[in-house]
Amino acid sequence: MTVTAHAADEHAGQARHWETSWAPMAIAFGSMFLAPLTFAAAAVMLASTGARAAVLGAPTQGEIGFQPVNSDNAADIVWFHNAFLLPVTIGVSALVLVLLAYVVINFNERVHPTPSKTTHNWTLETVWTILPALALIVIAFPSLRLLQKQMIVPTPDLVLKATASQWEWRYGYPKEVGGFQFDSLPKDDSDLDLAKGDMRLLTVDNAPVVPVDKVVEVDVTSLDVIHSFAVPSLGMRVDAIPGRLTQTWFKAEREGVFYGQCSNICGIGHAFMPIEIRVVSADDYQAWLVRAKKKQFASMEGVELAAAPPTR
Amino acid sequence: MTTVSGFVSSDAEKHAAHTPPTGLRRYLFATNHKDIGTLYLCFAIMAGVIGSLLSIAIRAELMSPGMHVFPVISAIMSGDGSDGAARNLYNVFFSAHALVMIFFMVMPAMMGGFGNWFVPLMIGAPDMAFPRLNNLSFWLLVASFCMLVSSMFVEGSPGMNGFGGGWVLYPPFSSTMGTPGPAGDFIILSLHLAGASSIVGAINFIATIFNMRAPGMTLFRMPLFVWSVLATAFLLLLALPVLAGALTMLLTDRNFHTSFFDPAGGGDPLLFQHLFWFFGHPEVYILILPGFGMISQIVSTFSRKPVFGYMGMVLAMLTICALGFVVWAHHMFVTGIPLAEQEFFVITTMAIAVPTGVKVFSWIATMWGGSIAMRPPMLWAIGFIFVFTVGGVTGVVLANASLDRQLHDTYYVVAHFHFTMSLGAVFSIFAGFYYWFPKMTGYLYNERLAKLHFWLTFAGINIVFLPQHFLGFAGMPRRQVDYADAFTLWNFVSSIGAFIAGIGTLVFLYLLYEAFAAKRVAAANPWGEGATTLEWTLPSPPPFHQFETPPAIRFDGAGAAVAEGGH
User: Which of A54, A298, B78, B441 lies 20 to 30 Å from B202, alpha-carbon distance?
Assistant: First the structure.
């Protein structure tokens, strides 16, 4: 479980800053404390996997509804769907089915040999034009209100950067909390610990950790083709588009592990770039930041920094 | 129902110069609208079988988690059974499945097949306005299909064959970034040819319908199927050039170092999506409008009642066409387009539900008070109305950008558009096929087999796509070759449905064989007095040429078209 540092990527400014200000300190710091830190990190890792938070955002076998909700936005989506759209979809489908059954039974040629000559009825036609329109207007109000809530990002407590590439996610933390970044890849099948709640194609080796009850803005972009950042139980989905920075946000209501997947066809690894977000208490988050920064420094030791991906 | 035989009796002398050419010449150089229609229908059946096989392979792979089927197919096709090659082949298959079904099955069947066959017959015209253009239209499509199939056997992504970026061709995956190999160019050129074919066809339909209606066949007396083809032709004419523009830009990005869609050169991948969906959304109405027209004819015929609310039906179709051009960005709600833009497209998209509702209610009202004969075409038409309604209401769900945030690119979307297309459009095609088969071939088919085909398909496809709504709610992304174990149950059920529907397709193919082998001769009008359009006044099959001098069209008390005079 190592954190790979990338010395440079297409965001050269950020990378240069990292290199010039953090790298020398990191190497010095690392060489002084490397041995004890390695032990400490290992101990903490063991402890943290033992006390792994419950998985709260994942699909379950045979379910017919949404995943559990863990943010205000996700809760609103599920409420809006179940209160407004589900009755409409089921109601209209059932109405049409009943009407079809009624006409097929009652106006069958055997029981109704002489057809009527009716060809229009303006009242009826007006009603079935106006009524659906009114129903749609009723739906539009909560729909647009929720859309505004999703799109207008409140002042964030943490800005997380998610950078997609074929086929992995890289998460970057802002300078204020350490300015580090790491890659997140699905765990190999052989590394999965199913007893601890690991899930094939969902659990990753390095998950970003965020504090509970804080507004987290996620800035999303891509280094190559279009990917999509989606975590259903947190109500997030936004495309990762090269040359653009897209945004989404969430405020997790409880601690836990929340899964998502890349949702835009991006090549042969499309099914193999999951997203895992771990939400922890403020204290645990601070502790994780310390460890993450140290792991970051530790990973500098080999100075086997990954090359920047090609940008054409 | 009056059958007028004067204008169809074939006078040997007069037709001496017009005996149909035989053999290869008849079809290769075909200019007769019925021959070209037959070519289109045979082509659509062939493409439909290929597209179905692709989908069965996909469902077989998704029957259980892990990779099982595609490594084998890949080993057979290219000798490389590695995971990478198998994943690539899966992507190539679902991309090809979409392109084949859209451009080479539904469009050729509806416009090329039924449109060519019945628009001239229904308006009392001798042929299409530009018969040679019609020939070009068909053979361009064959060339296009050859390019598409070829693309599967040349390099796309490095070291792998075929294009695997989905039918939407989003760059940078479709540009040299994701698909440097020639498979990308093959796909682009294939769609260019298909687009040219459709534009040419659309011009032909517009010219025919506006100029070649027999006297008395006014615009607002035209059968609704003709209206639907006219509306579709305008959609094609306005939408496809935009696709052609986007494809050309993509082609020059790939080959001539332009950067329309490349951010490194100041371009923007989102520009392609805007252009593509400006075409792509009207395209989905192109796929369904002729189906609306056919369903109207069939429901009216088998209820023995004129269509309820004819004007409302025409206006609804025209409204759908107009709105269809201002809803495109609802395919892009999660690309980060601004809030105001999303709000606009939410409203316009939801508005489309209104004219669509008018059509569904009018079909039911047409049946209401009728005298319904549950013959196979009617069975398919009633099936269509139900499944299209289900697909329509899930469309209202997805129209809400706030809900699309949760459902976009999940199996909910897959379920939605297959309910409108794989069930809706395909059911209308089969309804039309069973409705007009006796007219086109002169033979009756086995109605028991046709009903068996319906029930197998209806059950099968509902089992395929209903559980996919649940997968979508649970967040399963589409276009993935492997999935988390929690999605296993519904994927398994879905795959079982695909096999049932596959058996239905075999029944259909056997039905075709049986009908041609048994040679039960069909009367001019096998459906009785409910069939009021002009094609039923001609023998089955109609003569090689009809209405060579325009007949006068009169409508009797029951609204049936009667052709008088003319040769």
Answer: B441
